[in-house]
Amino acid sequence: MTRSAPMAILCAGLALAACRPGLMPQAPTRADLSNDLIRLTEPGPPKGPEGACWASDVTPMVIETVSEQVMVSPEQRAKDGSLIAPASFHTETRQKIVQQREEIWFRSPCPDEMTVEFVASLQRALKARGLYLLPLTGAMDMPTRIALRRFQAERGLESDRLSLGAARELGLVAFDRDPP
To answer: Measuring CA to CA, how many Å separate 176 from each of 30, 35, 179, 180?
Structure first.
């Protein structure tokens, strides 16, 4: 056996050991932010835990437009089967409300946490995911809000206000530890 053979066996063993499921890092899961939404019947933020901050947004009304062809008169045929007059149709279009507008509430980082450094970190996290393409400014400007809306919409929250769940997934705030 040559000197390089034991090294090759060692490398092969390490490579196979790394394939064990318990040693492989788990891919991060995508948060479902729609689970964090609260819909209230009375105005104002939810009564929540002490010190919790809330943000609200209004979901858009969803309207479906349906068009269909309706026969006005059927075709007419002669006794020998030849076509005398083709059928005539007209288009009927109607709209139906699929979902009403509503105010939704969700936990968010508190306003005192939304510092220039925090917003710059938010921009950096969105930039790392290809959603924010401009230089980091630390300002919660329109390009930042657009990128944030795209990030949260993929997770069930159509809002440009930062939710606590999105901030956690982006690594901007710590997760609450389970009580002992």
So the answer is: 17, 17, 9, 12
User: Which candidate, 147, 152, 153, places its Cα nearest to that of 163?
Assistant: 152
pTM of the model: 0.63
What does the pLDDT average to over 47-65? Answer: 88
Domain ranges of the chain: 33-60+101-169, 62-99
Q: Which two tokens stand for residue 40?
A: 């209230």
User: When comparing pLDDT for 10 and 76, which is higher?
Assistant: 76
For 48-85, letters b (16+ CB in 10 Å) and e give: eeeeeebbbbebeeeeeeeeeeeeeeeeeeeeeeeeee
Sign of CA dihedral 150, 155, 158, 164: negative
